[in-house]
């Protein structure tokens, strides 16, 4: 694979929805990415097998990057401890 095709593969990965990258099974994900490359007219017919092999060899990395992207866009909500109002705590301290 030449450097231009490699760049195109990663551009397709970066522009694919994170849910798709993290939720599809391996075969579906490879197929979606290859189809997106074809739709951009960026995948020569003789390079399809190489592109599939490259993507398949990078699936773990692709999923980890997608999860990181997802976490940056939608961080987990931090649970906040709910304390009784200050006046209740102060009253308890005075009474105690």
Walk me through the topology.
Elements: H1 3-15, H2 18-23, H3 26-39, H4 48-57, H5 59-73, H6 86-95
Helix pairs in contact: 1-3, 3-4
Written description of the protein model:
With 96 residues, the chain is mainly α. The protein has six helices and no strands. It has helices at 3-15, 18-23, 26-39, 48-57, 59-73, 86-95. The longest helix has 15 residues, at 59-73. It is globular, with a radius of gyration of 24 Å. The model has no long low-confidence stretch (mean pLDDT 83).
Strand content: under 5%
* Element pattern in H and E: HHHHHH
Q: What number is the mean pLDDT?
A: 83
What global shape is seen?
A: globular
CA radius of gyration = 24 Å
Largest sheet: none
Q: State the secondary-structure class.
A: mainly alpha
Helix content: over 70%
Low-confidence stretches: none
